[in-house]
Specification:
0% strand; 3 helical TM bundles of succinate and fumarate reductases; binds protoporphyrin IX containing FE; mainly alpha
Length: 216
């Protein structure tokens, strides 16, 4: 009985880790790249990038099974892990433990941000066709409000930190980095990946903002 509970727990833990990487992590990379295309102006963004995606066959199926359900599973199991409260950053002041704790905080912050972001874009677009038709204009208008811009900056860096730090912990969970040296080296690589991904995300935000200032 205990063995079967342990096996289920192990399997759920592995699925949580896998879904964080693929498809959710891969989608985050794709999504930030997609938004970075805002630098090429409203017509390119709306017609080529967003329009191209909206014309994909089986789009609702892909959104549900490739993005929404894996993300919901990852977030749900993540909340259960947080509820079990294993990290004790105040008692153990090791760097790794702090990052373990930050992984959880960023997960919860990210969940709140994603609710807002999906609500403002995908859900709002279902009720208001003009948002779907001109997502560029919608983002440009939203981001020109300082509180919204601040939320997007926080959301972007929470997501980037969560994925980059998650990559390094996933490598430990899957037995790819076993020695302390390998974990340190891979940690630097994940840090560099995070900076690159964050720069791509900033590039996208600047694309909408530059257009708001009339530069695009
Ligand atoms: C863009 C969305 C997200 C991505 C790309 C993502 C990715 C990842 C990755 C790659 C890991 C590492 C898995 C491992 O260590 O094996 C992870 C861990 C974690 N994620 Fe997420 N995640 C996202 C959203 C969320 C959300 C919304 C929550 C909600 C609370 C969450 C909670 C957690 C927790 C608690 C962990 C640590 C699990 C542990 O160490 O046992 N994540 N995430």
């Amino acid at each position: 009985m205990t063995a079967s509970i342990d096996n289920t727990h192990f399997l759920l833990r592995r699925l949580h880790s896998l879904f964080g990487l693929v498809p959710v992590g891969a989608f985050l990379v794709f999504h930030l790249w997609e938004n970075s295309q805002s630098r090429f102006g409203a017509a390119h963004f709306n017609e080529t990038v967003v329009g191209g995606l909206q014309r994909l066959n089986y789009l609702p199926f892909l959104e549900l099974f490739v993005i929404a359900l894996p993300l919901l599973f990852h977030a749900g199991y993540g909340l259960a892990v947080i509820g079990s409260g294993r990290a004790e950053p105040l008692r153990y002041r090791f760097l790794r433990n702090r990052w373990y704790w930050l992984q959880r905080i960023s997960g919860v912050g990210l969940m709140l941000f994603l609710l807002l972001h999906v609500g403002m874009t995908r859900i709002a677009g279902m009720f208001e066709p003009s948002i779907r038709a001109d997502l560029f204009g919608h983002m440009q208008q939203s981001l020109s409000q300082p509180p919204v811009l601040a939320l997007y900056l926080i959301g972007l860096w929470l997501a980037v930190f969560h994925l980059a730090n998650g990559l390094s912990t996933a490598a430990i969970a899957w037995g790819l980095t076993t020695s302390a040296n390998a974990q340190r080296r891979f940690g630097w690589l994940c840090g560099a990946f995070g900076l690159l991904l964050g720069a791509i995300g900033m590039h996208g935000l600047i694309g909408f903002l530059a257009a708001a200032g009339g530069a695009a």
